[in-house]
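Everyone, describe these structure tokens:
***
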Amino acid sequence: MDLHFGDSEPTDEERAAVDSLLGPATSAWEGAADRSDVDLRWARGGREARERRDLLLPGLHAVNDRVGWISEGALAYLCRRLTVPPAEAYGVATFYAMFALKPRPAKVLHVCTDLACAGNGSAKLCADLEERMGAAGSVSDGVTWQSSPCLGLCERAPAALLLQAGTPSGTAAAQRDPRLKNTGAPARPGRPNETDEPVRTAADAEVTPIRADLGTADAPNGAVVTPLRAHTNGSSAEPALRRQAFAVIAPATVDTLVDAATAPEDAPEEPSAAMAVPQAGQEGLLLLQRVGVVDPFSIDDYRSHGGYSALRRAFDIGPAGVIREVTDSGLLGRGGAAFPTGRKWQATASQPERPHYLVCNADESEPGTFKDRVIMEGDPFALIEAMTIAGYATGAHVGYLYLRGEYPRALHRLENALTQARLRGFLGDDVLGQGYAFDIEIRRGAGAYICGEETALFNSIEGFRGEPRSKPPFPVEKGLFGKPTAANNVETLINVLPILTMGAEAYAAIGTENSTGPKLFCVSGNVERPGIYELPFGATLGELLDLAGTPTEIRAILLGGAAGGFVRPDERDIPLTFEGTRAAGTTLGSGVVLVMDDTVGLPRTLLRIAEFFRDESCGQCVPCRVGTVRQEEALHRIKDRTGAAASDDVALLREVGQTMRDASICGLGQTAWNAVESAIDRLGAFK
């Protein structure tokens, strides 16, 4: 393939950002400055470079993190290193909201304007910010600000996230990718040699091993876990400079936003993850039992509170025994589809094609959802243990943790947890001396809700645009890299720990016959105690609302997030189960429960939902690409109308919504009309 990379050259800083990930270019064919006699005799790279295409997204992050935006020269250099056509890489880079391909300041302030924040004053916050810092997108004192979809900080709404580009830290992908450094963990089998041997490249000898300093904890925002550069003999050297400064400002005021934009490193420290769990420390919790109790930086503290006992039992009963326990427990997926987890694992494990992969979907982007963030920040080792068990059961030796790009604190805590697990033998080429090899690689998302769809997530990891694939084939047959793959979200995976420690029968006794076990609910909006609540399936909506404390006048309750549906305040008896919400004509979804009082305008809320789906549609299929735009246009026209004046557009909304539901390729388009439909039919909107 004859590729044309153009005449643009990267700056020294951009070149250094890419080289920090891939190692220095070894020939002019890869973009080295000097062309040697060997380069003139034959071309190098080719297939070997193309097999690393999945490093395109980390490469884009490396440049964006270092410089703040991705120039034509930087993109061309990254394409040359990976032998990716520049047009394709441009399509990938422009797919993600967190990347910029035009110059912008190093500091970018993301202000959430989504459902929970909108109900808690984000409109006024943005208006005040415009007075102080100028219009969104303008530059003021080296800072630009922009509105953002849900940041996953709903319990502290209104929220904002300040990211400052700078020098990358030592925790680059080289720490985890065996093609870049020999970690002793198995490489991605089958890419390219279809074996279980690590793939060696010329970069192996160039990249310095990295490990995190186990003795550190969170400093003020932007100066988190300090990674150490390690010499080849394993001794520690000087601390590496951090990847990005960041500040989480929640709840936000215009003064705290301006202060954070001026000096993010001096912003107030973010509260403990336990502050998002009103039940923290209570007896009887299964999924949240360690949040606020265990030091999230200490593997020893985790083990002293029962950590890794589930993995030891998994090794005792074997992969088939693990799958049997998960199947007998009745565990259903917690991401919204409610597919039986045991069936998925069995289907993956039984595939004769090798290798198998495990993917943890931590791209939690549904407005109103923040449970995965709290778990990863407050109990990161639980997720690492659960992924190891899932990999063991399904025959996978490599796991990918696809983490939402807007979760910097979760990223650093997970990186620290992975490092400690490797050093203590809980990850690597011989986990706990059982002869089982497993390791985990974190891949950061970059602001694309659609990547929560599992096949879009696979495309994102592989270095393509995050667009969903047609099914069949299903992921258990042809998933990541075309191999059998088990994909589960964070909450589903951590449910495996109590299943193994208490036994499938005891676990199945919790909840109802068709919805077993505990469930996490993300309660936000106009409530007294927003946060994550753990309740057994079968509790009623009213019981959950009583725990959170609701206002006297409730206008509506949104279940399941933007893709869910509204219910009336008098429907408190709805059982919070998959079958109970289905019978009530609504959905449980990912567990969002967003309460809106009478100060929240329903038409404006519906319009924000429509704007969200329009922005987040990947544009691949016509029903969703066109339908989400038409839905937003109709809602704009009738936002101040009722009755006969709105009837024509309501009829149009029904027609467009049904078309999206019937003909869209994935769940985004299929559910984009749900909330609007429920508001019209259940709440009497526009009557």
Residues 168-242 have pLDDT under 50 and may be disordered. The longest strand covers residues 396-403. The CA atoms of residues 611 and 632 lie 6 Å apart.
